[in-house]
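Quick check before the chapter quiz. The format below is the same one you will see on the exam, so make sure you can read both the input and the output lines.
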Amino acid sequence: MLVVDGELEALRMLTDRREALTRRRVQTVNRLQALLAELVPGQAKRDITALQAKGVLTGVGPRDVAGKTRRRIAAEELADLVAVEAKIKNATAELKAIVLARDSRLMELPGIGPVIAARILADVGDIARFADRNRFAAWTGTAPLDASSGEQNRHRLSRAGNRRMNHMIHIAAITQLRLDTEGSTYYRRKRAAGKKPMEAIRCLKRRISDVIYRQLLADAQRAALAPSPDAADAGPGGHCGGGVSRIQRGRPAPAHRHFGSATSWTRSHDATTRAAAPEASSEGRPPERQLTTEGSRRDARRCTSDRSDLHGQQTWYHQCEANPAQAQHRVLLVQPANRLEQPL
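Here is the expected output.
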């Protein structure tokens, strides 16, 4: 039965929405830069921010109709840029909250922020579907392809796999190169070994892919061992009164059962009936259990017949001890179904 994770689906939609907002921001910045380059030739910056663009527009006061129209359009583009950046900020904060709510520690890795962590969780889903780190690297496109020839041993870039995941890992690798991290040390070591810059980056991306796989695996194992808040009174397997663990044979107990409860209604109802109104028979035997099925009634009648026959057998043995002559004319024949006394 296919079960859809609502949180992962929401995470995927929010990640796609943020990527669309990012592309929209790039387009708005490009249009704004083109307008500012026409208003103030030679003074426009390459990577301009909303605050810098506002300062440039404040110091420009064209007198002609074309200049005034150009400035008004630039002001509208600046307002769109501010609005898009606010939406991107809100989307990033929401993604971070969802990642932390899932108890993921991906953001503790160098170069991985809330956006990259959200994309990894949304695209990977269940890490158990990957047999090992090599399968995961092949899926992310970070496993290089062998391109050796003769005595030359080299590998080339793989174009297969999930390209969005490959892009996220590439961003993490470039971020680690800019910081003093183990990734930058590993990159310099590969460069000293004779690797080209792009080949060293590919090696670093493969190493980051392995680290991400191990972290996802550790998060999944920790989530499987963590008790659920709504199972505080549940025992092993979800039954009440046996502890607080929801783990049974290494697997988390399901949130609901697809094929009814573990205890039948008949057994629970009989236990409730006996506790509420206990009855005792005239012979001192424990009260009979309430039976609701035809098969159970047949079993009860058979057990009752066996008990009565056994009682008659014991009575006959006592009579034989009192009158030995009577025992010579009668024998007890025991059959599998019941016990019968037949004369010779």
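If your answer matched, good. The first strand starts at residue 145 and ends at 146.
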